[in-house]
From TrEMBL:
NCBIfam families: HAD-SF-IA-v1 (TIGR01549). GO terms for cellular component: cytosol. The keyword Hydrolase applies. Transmembrane segments: none annotated. It comes from the Bacteria. One of its GO terms (molecular function) is phosphoglycolate phosphatase activity. This is HAD family hydrolase. Gene3D superfamilies: HAD superfamily/HAD-like, Putative phosphatase, domain 2. One of its GO terms (biological process) is DNA repair. Keywords: Hydrolase. It comes from Paenibacillus hemerocallicola. PANTHER family: PHOSPHOGLYCOLATE PHOSPHATASE.
Amino acid sequence: MKHACPEAMLFDLDGTLFQTETLLLPAYDSAFEQLNREGTYTKGTPPKELILSSLGMLLEHIWARVLPDADEQVRRRADELLLREQVEGLKRGDGVFYPGVEQTLRTLHAKGVKLFVASNGLEQYVKDVIRLKGLGELFTGLYSAGEYETRSKVDLVKILLERHDIKSAWMVGDRSSDVEAGKNNGLPVVGCKYAQFGKDSELEGADMIITDFAKLLELVE
């Protein structure tokens, strides 16, 4: 079923636009090697499944799951190193978008849809992924929990909508936090079911489901 094209689309980043593991996993290994070398954390690299299944959460919740036995100082250092390694990786050309993302975004932009990112990630990470991958000119704004210090994506999306005076928008994402952010702000939600980071129940309540990013174009008139 086709729907009227909204004024704006708000996209989650990790697991929705960006195939995060293609950048994250090499950076994760490097960060823990460095933590071990400097003696900050010497218990080895926690299972990668822990961080992959935590994507979309706020950073403090991610590190509480990945390093439950470490104190705040160790978690902050791990966070710092992981960001550094991911930025270095981006500069080397690591990391890819999901198939169809770039072309679909370019088509939506050409139709006059305002494009935004709304992510629970760090400001530098979110901006660098979009900028260093060459899609910066397509987006009206890049919103992150890191920059706006929001406690939930609901608040982040509310700030974005108010700041740009947006009357109609869709929330597009792969996690329950995206569904919640859309629903609590009165937006239709498109659930992306191709990353497989979350539980099967993640997208309960989404208005539309896509299993391929390019299918987004089929939903709009």
